[in-house]
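Take a sample.
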Amino acid sequence: MAQFYSPNRRTTSRRQLTVVADSLDAAGQGVARLDGKTIFVSGLLPGEEAQIELTEDKRHFAKAKVVKRISTSLQRAKPVCRYFNQCGGCQQQHVDIGLQRESKANALQYLMMRETGIDQVATPVISGEPYGYRRRARLGLQYQLKNKQLLMGFRKTQSNNLVDIKNCPVLSSDLDVLIKPLSQCLNQLSIAPKLGHVELIKADNCNIVMIRHLAAFSQSDKQKLADFEKQHGASIWLAGNDENIQPLTFSAPQPEYQVAGEILKFNPLNFIQVNAQINQLMVMQALEWLEINSEDRVLDLFCGMGNFTLPIARLAKSVVGVEGVENLVEQARNNARLNTIYNATFYNENLEAEIHTQPWAAHGFNKVLLDPARAGAAGVMEHLVKLMPEKIVYVSCNPTTLARDSKVLLDGGYQLLHLRMLDMFSHTSHLESMALFVRRPEV
């Protein structure tokens, strides 16, 4: 097909430039400045000089790749993972872990200041082990018809194709050792072309392999999985298209984990925090900030299956957990009974509704915790202000929505007292955080 010249078509100049990066953004890109324009350079660290080639050129910023690095920073690290230059799972293994955390904390602080006008430091960072920390990961599956091979791994950077991995150093070692034999096992199944994805989950009492499948398993396939389960001490769960999930063997234990001394049982489809160590530290930080005593009535919004609610209940007069997903509410109730906690009640509610008018809110709450999904809690904030609690802890997996929702609290009579960056996902661009808001005395 003929292609005609258009004077309005924007093209990126492939000219090469020499720059020195002066900082690192939250995604691990070097930030350089030239002729008043900010240039984001993938793979370049602060203080490093390099010849670069622009890959995208906008009015106020540009993106570039390194053609030749002229100098090397002492904060450059050797990636542990052999798939680092291919896999899109981790972006920052070439960056010293201290610099990663500092850059993310600075990015969080800058975003909050830009959006709210409040310059609150986001340190000290809540951090843990930089490798072997993931207790849950989803691995994609792609069947190649030509060579009849099932690939298992993570997507390549900016691609839907998979990197066929045999190990992953950010995974818990108990899960990492399952990758290679699991790939071999799945490749032997007759149903291999009809497999969707695999999730590896480390519970405190078992290691789980959850297999999403698009067709029924044959008896022969089930036997191969049973042999794998027995040989590797794993618990296999089969998840069909209808969200129905069943253990391969009926003797499989129900997975559980502990947080702040409480036991939480869960279904493999349930959300759990990926980083167990940071989850413990995060819950303890929330308890410390809220300063809960035996007279407090506490509200836990987006409570899930009780990750924060149950530890809070041990200290408070009463706690109400509210969640929009019905099966999580039922699981939270079960977990409360399991831990002999009777001052926690759970409700399945539309969290966009006027929560302050609900019957369970009639007596009010003097302290609140919320832990929403990436979309934040825009529909909740104005109703939350009307409850007039003394303290609010906001746990966030998206700094943009945290900053947006913070403005409602600041305008509603609250001040930001503490801000922390949570290094929940070392070596990635994910930025988790938590903030403490207290009601201003004059309000």
